[in-house]
Amino acid sequence: MRFNTLALAVAGATLACACSPAPTADNAATTNDTVSLRNLADTEVARPARESYTVQGRLIPTPSDTSSRYYLLRERKALTDTHIAIIRQEHDNRIAYARAEVDCDKRLFHVLGTGPNRALVETTPVHDGPLRPIKGLPLREELASFVCQVAGTPLKAA
């Protein structure tokens, strides 16, 4: 009897998972498996800005997006020789966070997570696809260049 109950519980959990809709990152301004960092603060992921923040971060120069301010809050090296960055975007009195991966040697970038705060950006994945070239994406190139510079691994020339 106990085995039957356990088997039913496992089967029910499996069915619930199989029938649930796949997680989406619609709140993260995704289109065709890409996350738009330029519009992230305009999505439901963003929250109203506060007066001050515990971690101020380093202001990232982004000439391609003068209407927003981007801050590098944290950068760390991953096991795969890429760099993981936590970035805060401030736009129209709203803020959003993104966790991105940058490969400085191959000029690749992708978003790993988004969220309304630092804790959720570390744990909430988005489907931005694999690392991709930053050619033709000026904002991603500016962000990647700054992350690589801070990491001490300059972004390779195009």
Give an account of the 3D structure:
The chain is α+β, with helices and mostly antiparallel strands and 158 residues long. The chain is 24% helix and 30% strand. It has helices at residues 2-19, 118-123, 138-151, and strands at 30-31, 34-35, 47-48, 58-60, 69-77, 83-91, 94-103, 108-115, 132-133. The strands form 2 sheets. Strands 3, 4, 5, 6, 7, 8 and 9 form a 7-stranded antiparallel β-sheet that branches. The longest helix is centred in the N-terminal third of the chain and has 18 residues, at 2-19. It is globular, with a radius of gyration of 19 Å.
**Helix content bin:** 10-25%
Distance between termini? 66 Å
* Multimerization status: single chain
Largest sheet: 7 strands, antiparallel
What is the arithmetic mean of pLDDT? 82
Task: Tell me the number of strands.
Answer: 9
Strand content: 25-35%
Low-confidence stretches: 6-31
Summarize this structure as a short list of keywords or feature phrases.
single chain; 158 residues; alpha+beta; seven-stranded antiparallel sheet; two-stranded antiparallel ribbon; 24% helix; globular
